[in-house]
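Our working data are protein records whose layout never changes between entries. An example says more than a description, so a record of this kind follows.
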Amino acid sequence: MNGTCLTRRDWFKATAAILTAAGVSSRSGSAALATEHEAKVLALGSRRELFVDRFLIDRITGAHLRLHEPQLAPVMTEPADAMEYGTVIKDGDLFRLYTRDGRGAKFDGHPAEVTRYCESRDGIHWMKPKLGLIEIDGNKENNVILHEPPFCHNFSPFLDTRLGVTSDERFKALAGTVKSSLVAFVSSDGIRWRKLRPEPVIAYTKEYAFDSQNVSFWSESENRYICYFRHFLDKRLRSVCRTTSEDFVKWSEPVALRPNFPDEHLYTTLTHPYFRAPHIYVALPTRFHAGRGESTDILFMTARGDRPYDRTFREAFIRPGLDPARWGNRANYAALNVVPTGPTEMSIYTTPFRRFVLRTDGFASVHAGDDVGEMVTRPLRFSGHELFLNYSTSAGGSLRVEIQDEDGQPLPAYAIADCRTLVGDAIEQTVTWAKGSSVASLVGRPVRLRFIMQEADLFALQFR
């Protein structure tokens, strides 16, 4: 071979010849190699991918993955109730907030605890409806939807998006403590709730468990219900287990995920599907610093289906900040779910009731500074006729895209020199080359994407 660089086609031919010489059927050997090779090609389809991990990245030089800091929004003039173990659900044009009100409770599951409900049309201005459902302190003029110990301690609902779900079970929830285990609730309107059955649906006796917010959802990518619940890892560290179900009643044996770094407590996880890319689960755990005055901060993690949590970013996502009140125990919890609050904005709600904002898809990015950076993806197959990017540059920055074959050779008409330079800021920008934006001729073919960047951030991409 005399040092000549082989293409993949040449490599397959050469390998088949070696297998034949060794007495192995070239057909069966080549088939095995082809199967192994195909497994390494990402089936991207038309789904949106975010750069929250290294899933798409083969190599990167002069650039790096960067975690972006959520910005604290102005104080809301019409806030919801103070929040602890909160859940925010965007149901069409309505935002629904569920939160615990301890009402002076002395322990988890105390009879004084209640679950309150607030709603909003924009995620910023909130109302506390007088529902007239449950009598508290002598009257029903309140927004209480549940007063049943111990389930108000960590009642955490979700909107069930499973195809074919019945209207009377459109909303579901899990709640409970170590003594009760997790009991399932259902509702038609998200306000009036009933137990799916009196017995617990999830029990766990290996370690102390369930005393924090335990979250669940329907997973489109896994085609089943998922629950992430709190337990004590090795009876020492606050951590998380995972279990799954096809019917929300019978659940698999819980698996300890062990995402903790050494001596790290993860008080909650708040794991949920990201609303624009539901195959990516976003987690906003509270990190508990037992040796630092029991202070807390909020982290950012992700997961892809049943794979382990990705800990690409180890630093805090949301710091306690300037307010001294945020430097104590139980001072920094995120609500379950990141939700869209505008065409270019998404919101994260935290205790006591604050709102942080990020650009849409803007958790993290491939970032290049004033030196030119380059990133090349792994081989992938896509469906769709155009490539859209969520990106941002400075006035002097730029971003260009090249489409290569899987060996890394530029494809005719899609080389860097053919790409129209992107300068600006857009949530969805079509990439164009000298002959236009269509990539339809490449559908189904293994390709790589090569990005050349300067003073730029690449947040997400999608073929469609």
About this structure: The radius of gyration is 25 Å.
